[in-house]
Amino acid sequence: MTQTKTQSTSSTSPGNQSRQNGGFPIVGLGASAGGLEAFEQFFRHIPPDSGMAFVLVSHLDPSHASILTEILQRTTSMPVAEAQDQMRVMPNRVYVIPPNRDMTIFHGALQLSIPAEPHGQRMPIDLFLRSLAEDRAEKSIGIILSGTGTDGTLGLRAILGAGGVTLAQEPTTAKFDGMPVSAIQAGYVTHILPAEKMPEVLLSGILALARQPLPSPPIASSGINHILMQLRTCTGHDFSLYKKSTITRRIQRRMSQNGIEDTETYARYLREHPAEIASLFKELLINVTSFFRDPEAFVALKQDILPAVLADKPEDYVFRVWVAGCATGEEAYSIAIVLRELMDKNQYEFKSQIYSTDLADDTITIARAGLYPPNIALDVTPERLRRFFIKEDDGYRVKKEIREMVVFAVQNVVKDPPFTKLDLLSCRNLMIYLEPELQNRLIPAFHYALKPGGVLFLSPSEGIGNHTELFTPLNRKWKFYRATPSAASTRAILTSNLNWTTEPVHKTPEDIMKSARENNLAELTRRMLLQFYAPTSVMTDLKGNILYVYGETGKYLRPAPGHATLNMIDMAREGLQLELRSAISAANQGTPTLDRELPVKTNGDVHPVHLCVRPLSNPNDRQNLLLVSFQDIAPPTPDKPARTKGTSKPNELHHIEELERELAYTKENLLATIEEQFASNEELKCTNEEMQSTNEELQSTNEELETSKEELQSINEELVTLNSELQAKIIQLADMQNDMKNLLDNIHIGTIFLDQSLIIRRFTRDAAQIYRLVASDVGCALSDIKPELEGEDDLLDAAHAVLDNLVPIEREVKTLNGNWYLARVQPYRTLENMIDGVVLTFTNITERTRAIAMQEARLLAESIVNTVREPLIVLSNTLKVVTASRSFYQSFQVTPEETVGRTIYELGGGQWNIPALRNLLETILPHNQTFEGYRVEHDFPTIGHRIMLLNARSIIGQTGEPQLILLAMDNVTDRA
Description:
The chain is of the alpha/beta class. Helix content is 41%, strand content 21%. Residues 231-480 form the CheR-type methyltransferase domain.
């Protein structure tokens, strides 16, 4: 049976199914050190209308505000916002995690919380991706970019198990490859790409697959059946009774990765590429689990379920557990840890046998190793990590005492026989992927495997269906059921089509009776042979500790004085101990001891014994054992002693006595040596205990150092991220500084920045027109620089006044070269609205001042002209009328529009265009050009006036050019 595990059961609820089948994909991007550059590469290539939402989770310094939002906004036209609590996620938007916050997603809304884990042990990427897998299922996309450590690996596993898509940055393109390599080596990545190539993949096959509804079974059934048939032929596992939606979605994902759209084409592809069958088989095995999944369920198991099951059990009871579909072993180890805690708390001495099975060989290999990434700290409490795990470079390894409680094996729940006589059977998130037909076949099998009163442990999304007669609910919320005594499960097993029941079903009653008689004869024969031919034997380990005793051993062994012990050497009777020690030592080297004759003293009598010590090998638990056998030797029949000439009986007796004395002395020396050896061994034991204590202290110190290392590594990652942000900010500030310099240089406004002591901070190029400033003047007092201004310089006083009352001051100043400037003195305000100096600006207003003066002079001249009673006009050097007096308009009956701007010859309909006037003007013009004083008067009867012409410098208009004044003095007609 494929062992399908999911991160959480909430994703399978009906409410979640409706939410997941609709909506838009959400992409979770995780990064750490070097991630800023990868983020920018990704978003430069993603269009603003992709239809996806993007949530960024990075390792940020909790004590500094992040500018990641501002930086990313420059690389994409999508709105980029810092996430807020309860913020709804919308498509075509980017959300960034704030500093010092954990973030999850629930029903499409972001949930922010203050981190509970200490600094350096947080896994924010895993936390968010796992919640994303629960919330969006197959519409979830996980991406791991540059970073150190392993954060994100378990998050990708959850997304992959929920049917989503996972990507990781190509390690060679990442600044730091720790996080991508961890996810890739764990096998949870479907695509490995550079960051800039990921949008192309998302927008092609992956996004199309995420948006498409699943094909209906009639449309896909033919090709799907062909694919499942090939899987069964090649792997021996039948997936036909799996839920079609799950199978079809995962087959489609493999098809998308291979660029195939038709199921029949993919079936042919499988025949041509056997390696793809292995990949598809692995895809269908949803090997996703976690430690203490649904923690409240394990609290109920520890506090309510197990104490009730163990309440009436004897001390030598063997508690049997089966974890079906264990995936990588986290759930089996979780149950083992709970059992160990319960035994330690209540001082139970019973043994436990936990059988943990799964269909995939590679996951069983991982489970046996018991090595898991550091991310499990999200699911395992610090106390349990310290007590039941060993910290290694690659993560946490389950301690030996817990690993020895669990036996892992490859098994198919559907095809293979179940374990029996179980006290607890855990099968969580397995049946949710099976059709009801197969579920109804497994529930009786589980009842058959349990003892009466045994407990079945399912996930909150699973149940016992219609088999209510087999189980009694113990906890409906967390799905604990007690097996009710019933023969219905046995009948269901015998009548089912399960492979392991096929043979018994077809046996006739005669076959069964014949088999029983054959078994009885075999057992009787075995017992008789053991009774009459097998010697008294003891099974020991390599140190001589007794494991099993066959026959009566009282002649050879007796309880040793002192503390009770089962060590065979300590229990050996006199005459046997020394040889037994040597034989066991030789057997440890692989050399057996066969039929060694020894005198053994029992109850004061000495009788000969044959000693055999044979090394054995136990293939089940790979433990080397020793078989020690004792066999009495029958005493020989006494014959009449033959007399030998020359032999003296007293001498023989004397020699025997000497030998006996030497032997006794040797035995005493040997016993003394043995006692000394025992004393030395005791001292070594004490030394070993001290060394173990020291080792534990060193391990504790090492754990503390590892924790400090993790914290320093986390801080280093945050500093790298912060440094990347600051580098981007420096580039931005350099651009802004360049822009500001060009702005100040091109608006031609002299500017001087002063601090609160009126020390020069900076100045612009145009400020040198007012103060004699050079680059080395930065840092000097402005009072040391002489200004190029006329009159008393009071700008410094104005600066002091602005610092005191913060009221800006404006005034006009004139330089020594005659230029006018508008000087403004204003306070220097920081971004925090703090006053930190003064700003002097100088705007050139020379042209404006001259224009105002010209306007005033023109008005003055026109006023003077209008006061003259005689008609008067002012001509330019081109004989055009610049202005005319009011009396001129009245005397000659013309308007200003008919006069100003016209030549003298065009006035009055040409009445001024007479030869005499022309000659006169041509005579005076050369003098007028040189501004020599010139005056002429002449009567013009045709005009009717005596005309006076005189030249003058330009007053009216202030053009700087010479002008002619024509004055009509006397009326010639009146005078005549």
